[in-house]
Every structure is written in structure tokens, then in C-alpha cells.
Amino acid sequence: MKTSFLYVLTAGLAFAAEPPNPKIDFDRFRAISLEVAKLRETRRISEDDFLRLAAEPGTVVLDARSREKYDQLHIKGAVHLNLSDFSEVALKEVIPAKDTRVLIYCNNNFEGEERFFVSKAAPAALNIPTFISLHSYGYTNVHELGPLLDIKTTKIPFAGKSVK
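User: That's the sequence. What structure does it adopt?
Assistant: C-alpha cells below.
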């Protein structure tokens, strides 16, 4: 019994002693998340403000959901870049400058079409990591659609293969 406990303890210590990966920085992620928490609250916008800002020249509406869901149904005029594909190069291809106004939305902003806007657990809503990631890459003008909207009654127009 003592031998197996000692092995588990030793194995755990060996794992904890692994050298850090310079490409993974949880401490910086945590710090950025705390910075973004305050900023994000001032950047959550109404449906009307979203529509008004989206219509202004130079604004990018970004959909970070899967390509499959985007192709089926997305906000008209939105560009697609899956969150898992965010990189300096990929972001630069869809957002021209770090100070470009970027509007984001996610599955949890819409109800009434669950096939294409699958609700996530509230703390796992895509808007949260999208906002944090954009901030981490230095994008300074990000705004987030705030409310939960019924897809059948929202004023926001949609495009995609499933538009009726």
C-alpha cells in the first residue's frame, strides 16, 4: 500500500516538475481575462446599436462559430473565422487593423433555431473566449451583442443556406 501511494506521489511530482511550455501562458490568460471582464461590460451592446454599428463603413461583424453552423445561418454580412483558427495571420486576413470596430455574437445570443444556434452553458458562451482572444491579439475596438434574441422576431437580418 505504501509503495503504490509513494509511486502516485512521485509520479505527480514528476509531472508537476515538467518544464513550462513558452507557448502556453495560463497566468497571462488569467490576467487578460480580468482586464477584459471590466472592459467587456462597457462593450456589450443592444440589438439596435448592433444594427447601427454594423451598417457603418469599416465595421467587421465576426462569426467565430463552426464553419458548418456559419454556412447554414449567420448574421448577414458577417465574416467567418472559427475561434479555434484564431492566429495573428488569420485574424489579419479578416480584420484589417487592430483598431477596426469588430462586432461579435454567438450561439447564446439567439433562440428559436437551435439547429444552427446551439445554446452553450452560460459560462462557456462563445462570446467570452472570442472577446478575450481578440483582446489578447491586441484588437482594441471589440463590441459584443448583449441580449438574447428570438431569431423569428429580431430585426437583425440573416443569410446562409437555411434562410427561409
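Residues 7 and 13 are 10 Å apart (CA to CA).
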